[in-house]
Amino acid sequence: MEEKLTPEESAILEELRQSIRGDDSQRSRLIPILQKVQERLGYLPPEAVKMVADHLAVPLSEVYSVATFYNQFRFHPPGKYPIKVCMGTACHVRGGEIILENFERKLEIKEGETTEDREFSIERVACVGCCALAPVALVGETVHGHMAPSKVEGLFTRIQVQKEIEEKRRKKDGSE
Amino acid sequence: MTVTLTVDGKALQAEAGSNLLEVCLENGITVPNLCHLPGLEPPPAACRLCFVELEGIDAPVTSCTVPVSDGMVVHTDTDRVRRLQRSALRFLLSVHDVDCKNCHANHHCALQDLARFLKVGLKPRGLSIILKEPEVDDDHPFIRHYPNRCVLCERCLRTCHDRHGHSPLALSGRGFDTVIRCFADTPEDAQPCQSCAACVDVCPVGALVLKTG
Ligand code: SF4
Ligand code: SF4
Ligand code: FES
Ligand code: FES
Question: Do A85 and A171 reside in the same domain of the chain?
Fold first, then answer.
């Protein structure tokens, strides 16, 4: 699935294009420039990767080869509700993989991807530091411990309810 | 300068500094290998199959990285060597979708030859099979890639580099997720691939195939 750039993203990309023009174009600048791009855009869309390749005059394949090697780079925009499934040792032995699969199935995306409406994204993360609650998943910054397949379903219901409450509040605020 | 070395008890003549693996192969001595491409330096030594033992050196060494020297004594068929080679092959097969009937490389596949030579079954017992998704990479307009047949020998991309100075092919990801991928800017960029296809020819298994029609 390739996401289209939003108008804001296109604007940021244009800005970046102007600003990297002044940057050194040595090959050793590859990672710092990618980091700078991701910092501004939140991910590396194909347009941005191409821009970096052109700036450094290296083949696109080389930029991708480096960028895909590092976990810090992502190729899909983060969702509004980023879901992070812990794959640390404790969570791994308590079935973290199964939890991940449940999220993937529910949202019909793979780990590292984002739903088309950009509401949800899934990624695997290393130990988040509360192994006693394994297996653990994070939705945004909120920790959900002792995850189970049934809880995955419950989580989405909760998010839905939360969204509706927010929606109502917004409407109320608007009518006041 | 010509030097004399002994391989499996046989005295061989070779040019000093030439590649030990190549010298063995040229003299009809079978040494398993997947990633070596004669003439393309440096060898990536990625497949870990071409081990031999050198007298005077403790551990087996990859013959593709050894320059021959005078008086060298080499053994290619020792227990230690075969154990290493069998393990390497078994690990390769543990990330392989063995389905030879439906593979165009059937009967001319380096993995099949190696399995026969090393007496290893194509389905490695005792190892779980880990496969990648998607099964088929159809991104390239002319070349289809099967990641679960690929042995990551890099012969395709090194050959492409050697011919064209650069390559749209690259290793992507890392660890178990490493795959060969094609990153062409636009379909036009991939146009030359149709008449070249050197990567397809050099693949030792059935991981690359030219799309027809
Ligand atoms: S690549 Fe070789 S071993 Fe693998 S399926 Fe094809 S013929 Fe069989
Ligand atoms: S596609 Fe073939 S030549 Fe390329 S790395 Fe895989 S096995 Fe080797
Ligand atoms: S391993 Fe998951 S929280 Fe530590
Ligand atoms: S041929 Fe020597 S490591 Fe592959």
Answer: yes
Domain encompassing residue A168: 81-175
Residues A88 and A53 in one domain: no
- Point out the residue among B166, B174, B184 whose CB comes nearest to the CB of A69: B174
Domain co-membership, A97 together with A159: yes
**Secondary structure element (H or E) that encloses residue B5, with its range:** strand B2-7
**Complex-level ipTM:** 0.84
Number of helices (H), then strands (E), belonging to chain A: the values are 7, 4
* A2: in domain: no
Nearest residue to B27 via CA among B5, B44, B43, B49: B5
Residue B36 Cβ < 6 Å to ligand 4: yes
Residue A74 included in any domain: no
Per-residue pLDDT tens for A13-44?
999 999 999 888 999 999 999 999 999 999 99
A107 and A164 assigned to the same domain: yes
Give domain status of residue A1, yes or no: no
Closest chain B residue to the Cα of A74, Cα to Cα: B173
Strands of the sheet with B73-75, listed across from one edge: B10-15, B2-7, B73-75, B51-54, B61-62
**Residues in a beta bridge with A122:** A83
Q: Count A/B contacts: CB-CB distance under 8 Å.
A: 32
A16, A34, A69 — which closes off a domain?
A69
B50 CB near ligand 4 (under 6 Å): yes
User: How many CB atoms are closer than 10 A to CB B160?
Assistant: 23
For residue A110, which residues of chain B lie inside 8 Å, CB to CB?
133
Rg of chain A over Cα atoms, rounded to whole angstroms, equals 19
Query: Looking at the predicted structure, is the pLDDT value of residue A1 above 60?
Result: no
The answer to whether the CB of B182 is under 6 A from ligand 2 is: no
Alpha-carbon Rg of chain B, whole angstroms?
19
